[in-house]
Amino acid sequence: MMVQIDMRSEVRAAIASVDDPEYPGLSIVDLGLLESFEVEPEGVVQVGLIPTFSGCPALAMIAQDVVDAVEEVEGVSSASVSWLRSPTWSAERLTQHAQETLADEFTVAVQIGQKAPVCPLCGSATTELSMFGPSRCRSVSRCKNCSETVEVLRA
Asked: Which CATH number goes with the domain that contains 53?
C-alpha cells in the first residue's frame, strides 16, 4: 500500500509539472484543470482533466504533455487523459498562486462571479470593454485609474 501512495504522490507531482502552454510557468493544477486521477495496480494511470472551454486549441497539447510527464514516473506502464464534461471549469478553480501569477506575470485579471475584476497593475476597478477577448474564456476591460487595457480570465 505504501508503494501505491508514493506512486500517487509522484503521479500528482508529474501532472503538476505540466504548464499551460498559454501561461508558461503556471501549472495546469494551479489553473484548476485537474479533476481526478487513478493509479491502477498494473501501473496504468488515468487522468481526468477539465478544459477551460471545450474548444480550447491547446487540449491535445496539454493531454500529450500530461501523458509524457506521467509516463516518466517509475512504475507507470501507461497513462491516458480524458477531458471531462463535468464539472465545468470556472475561475473559482484557480489557486491563489495562479491568480497572483496571472496578474503579476501576464497582466491578466481574474473575474470570479459578477464582481468586476481589479486591474492587475494598479489594483483599481475596471470597466468591461468587450465580453469577447482573445479566447472564449477571456474578455477585455479597461482600468478606470491607469487606463490599461486588461485581459480578464472569467468563467
From this structure: 3.30.300.130
Looking at the structure, tell me whether residues 64 and 137 fall in a common domain. no
- CA 47 → CA 58, 92, 115, 117, distances in Å? 17, 21, 33, 32
The predicted model scores a pTM of 0.86
In this predicted structure, the answer to whether residue 35 has a pLDDT above a threshold of 70 is yes
Mean pLDDT of 58-86: 96
Are 12 and 37 in contact by the 8 Å Cβ rule? The answer is yes
What are the C-alpha distances in Å from 20 to residues 43, 56, 60, 79, 144?
A: 25, 11, 12, 19, 30
Which residues span the domain enclosing 108? 91-154
| DSSP state letter for 93 | G
